[in-house]
Each structure stands twice: as structure tokens, then as C-alpha cells.
Amino acid sequence: MTTVWSFPTRILFGEGLATEALAAEVKSLGGSKVLFVTDEGVKGAGLIEPLAEALSEAGIESDVFDQISSNPLESEVLAATDAYRKSESDLLVAVGGGSPLDVAKIVRLAATHPLPLAQYDDAIGGDAKVVNDVPPMVAIPTTAGTGSEVGRSGVVTLQATNKKTVIFAPKLMPNVAILDPKMTESLPPRLTAATGIDALTHLIEAYCAQGDHPMADAIALEGIRLCAEYLERAVHDGKDLEARGEMLKASLMGAVAFQKGLGACHSLAHPLSAEHDLHHGLANALCLPAVLDFNRSVVPERIGRIAKILGARGDDTETLAFECSGAVRALRKKVGLPDGLEAVEIPEDGLARLANLAYDDVCHKLNPRECTAEDLLTLYRASF
Ligand SMILES: NC(=O)c1ccc[n+]([C@@H]2O[C@H](COP(=O)([O-])OP(=O)(O)OC[C@H]3O[C@@H](n4cnc5c(N)ncnc54)[C@H](O)[C@@H]3O)[C@@H](O)[C@H]2O)c1
Ligand SMILES: [Fe+2]
């Protein structure tokens, strides 16, 4: 069996670096006109203006597209592609959480490839059709969660199926990621918590996923340590730039690690967002403990090691693995997130339908323990 390992993104990290470094990065990528891809919340937080000014001072013109929702839709990707063409830009700068970053990646695909987006769905081998060159992209994350700035995938809800669909191709990876803790300062506590648990879920699911990837495993363990040490601080004091910065690192490490794979938690989370517009990170936070309990019999050493990093006590693997879900629940509580699907008003009588949708999602295929649709329903019930 052949396995492919790759960590190629250029990553710049530093406080205030977004405004300082952007123009030089755009120029070195050959950009002469930029389209900012963002959303109204990020723009409203005043994060775009200083970047546009910095570009303007360097003689680079820019336009802004900000009509993107938190669970982005195919129609928004198509509108952004239209804006990209009309503005005659030659480079995209995505500024935001996973939603604008993902949309910008898929705009690069839509602007240069002829087929309807559904044809590029990772679940049907769509990556093989991503063959043309795509315009360059700089990614500036304003949440610390998805790590989309170093990932090769974009997630969008397709119109025809109303399913959150992963479009994956190495060409979609941003050329440069600029990680500036100041860009996450204005993120409110609840979103800081929910996005932080998304990062933690990536790290945990990657570490437990099937497959042989020792580099991803090592990165995942260090990322889990960063979440354990800094997530609460970032939630309780948004101006704590050290904590903000460490969480940005944990987030990108999550996305680097999950090139190994994800697991059942992400399959459970996707229909909750597509059907009920639940924030992606919050959906993961609500389902993760049950998934850890489900997986513990298959990968006890791994789950025991995670528990230990999260502060659980126990002298042997089995005890630690048993304690892991409790450690995640405790962290979830400390960062102020709800404790189950009922608390976010997911209807109990819709769980069976959601379980069938979760079963159709690809992420659980690499879960360490095989899942049936029935298992996924049990996991939703255990997360209720
Ligand atoms: N590409 C991937 O590998 C990957 C991985 C995980 C999740 N995702 C996707 O990413 C999306 C979720 O991304 P997200 O959790 O980062 O949230 P998001 O991008 O949806 O943003 C959530 C909200 O936070 C606001 N916001 C963002 N940054 C802010 C800031 N600094 N100050 C004030 N407000 C701010 C936004 O305006 C928005 O209202 C989902 O669609 C999910 O499916 C993608
Ligand atoms: Fe995620």
C-alpha cells in the first residue's frame, strides 16, 4: 500500500502581520487586482478595511465580496465567482472563518473548470477532474477552528441535494496562509469556543483515524496539547493574544493532521449543519463525547493518551480511555457550550433521518470503528 504525506503550504505567523505582509505576498504571487472574499460579520468587525488600505498603498486595487453565510451555499459560491470575473481580479484573498476560506477555494475551481460543482464532489472521485490551473489565493483566518487555510478541501452545501459536500483537490490549497492572532481578537466567546472545539475534533479524529501517518499523529498530539492549554484562555479573554495565537496554531495543525482522515463525529456534524444550520464546531462539540465512547474499545491506547493530555486521571489505559469523553464534556462546559442536541433544539423525531444522511457522508469511512446507519443513530441519541 502507498501512502502520500505532504505539508507544503507557506505559512506566515505573527501579530499584526496581516496588514504588514499582505501586499508583498500578493505581489510575489503576481497579483495585480485582488478580490477579498469574506462575510458581513468579518467586514463589520472592521477586518477588511486595513487590508484594502495596505494593498492600495502598495498600488494594488481590490474589491470585496461579502455575501457568504456560515454554512455556505452553492449559490453563494456562484455569486462570488461572478464577482471575481466581473471585478477582473487575478488573485483571491480570503479573510474569515472556514466559510469564506472554503468559498474562495471553490471560486478558484468554479472560475477555471466547466462542470457543475456536484461533479467535483470528493465522494464520487471529483478530485480527478480538478485539472486546470487555478488563480492564486492568500488565506487569512479570523477564527481558530477549521484550519481551512492549509487544507485542500472546501465544504459547501449543494443545491440539488442540500448536503454539505466536500470538494477536495491539492490545487485548491491556498498559496500562502497568514496567521495573525489580532485577526481573531474580535471573535465572540461562544464562537471562539465552538471553533476551538472544531480544531480539537479534527486533531482527535485524525489521531484516531485508520491509516498509517506518524507525522499526522505527532502533529495531532501536540495540537491537542495546545487546545488543552489555551482554548479556555482564548474564550475567557479574547484579547489574550498568546492564547489566540496558540489556538491558530492548533487549528492549522488540525487541518494538517486530518489529511490522514477524520471520523464519525464529522459525519454526524454535517447533516446537523445542512439541515438545522447548526454551527459546524458546535455540532462537533455536541457529538464528540459519544464518538469517543463508541471508538474506545478499538483504539484504547490512543483515546487514553488523548484523555491524559486533556487532564483526565487514571493509572491504566482502560481507565484513561473511559475518562476521555468526560474530559471533553468538562472542557465543553468550561468554555460555555451546551451539553447536548436537545439544548440546541434538534427535534428528537428527526434523528433517524439525520442518521441516514450521516451514513452517506464520507468522513466516517476512516473512523477507527466501522459504523452502520444504526450506529450513527445510536450516537445521535447518546448526544441528545
Ligand atoms: N475546509 C475544511 O477543511 C473545513 C474544516 C472544518 C469546517 N469547515 C467548514 O467551515 C465552516 C465553519 O467555519 P468557522 O467555524 O470558522 O465559522 P464561519 O466562517 O462560518 O464564521 C462564523 C461566524 O463568525 C463570524 N466571524 C468570523 N471571524 C470573526 C472575527 N474575527 N470577529 C468577529 N466575527 C467573526 C462570521 O462573520 C460568522 O458569522 C463550515 O461551513 C464548515 O463546514 C471546513
Ligand atoms: Fe470540522
Count of strand segments: 8
What percent strand?
5-15%
How widely separated are the two ends?
A: 40 Å
H/E order of the elements? EHEHHEHEHEEEEHHHHHHHHH
Q: Which structural class do you get from the secondary structure elements? A: alpha/beta
- Cα-atom Rg, whole angstroms? 20 Å
- The CATH class of the largest domain: Mainly Alpha
* Biggest β-sheet: strands ordered side by side in the sheet: 1-8-5-4-2-3
Oligomer: single chain
Report low-confidence residues grouped into runs of 5 or more: none
Helix coverage percent: 40-55%
Name the descriptors.
384 residues, alpha/beta, Rossmann fold, Dehydroquinate synthase-like, alpha domain, 6-stranded parallel β-sheet, two-stranded antiparallel sheet, 14 helices, 8 strands, 49% helix, binds nicotinamide-adenine-dinucleotide, binds fe (ii) ion
Which helices and strands appear, and what pairs or packs with what?
Blueprint: E1 10-13, H1 17-28, E2 33-37, H2 40-44, H3 49-57, E3 61-65, H4 74-87, E4 91-96, H5 98-110, E5 137-141, E6 153-157, E7 164-168, E8 176-179, H6 189-208, H7 214-236, H8 241-257, H9 264-276, H10 280-295, H11 300-309, H12 317-334, H13 351-360, H14 373-382
Helix pairs in contact: 1-3, 4-5, 6-7, 6-8, 6-10, 7-8, 9-10, 9-13, 10-12, 11-12, 13-14
The structure holds nicotinamide-adenine-dinucleotide (NAD) and fe (ii) ion (FE2).
The site of nicotinamide-adenine-dinucleotide has 32 residues, from helix 2, helix 5, strand 6, helix 6 and helix 10.
Notes on the structure:
Helix content is 49%, strand content 10%. The mean pLDDT is 96. A hairpin with a 6-residue loop joins strand 6 and strand 7. The longest helix is centred in the middle third of the chain and has 23 residues. It is built from 14 helices and 8 strands. The chain is α/β, with parallel strands linked by helices and 384 residues long. A 6-stranded parallel beta sheet has the order 1-8-5-4-2-3, with helices on both faces. The chain folds into 2 domains: 175 residues, Rossmann fold, CATH 3.40.50.1970; 194 residues, Dehydroquinate synthase-like - alpha domain (Dehydroquinate synthase-like, alpha domain). Bound molecules: nicotinamide-adenine-dinucleotide and fe (ii) ion (FE2).
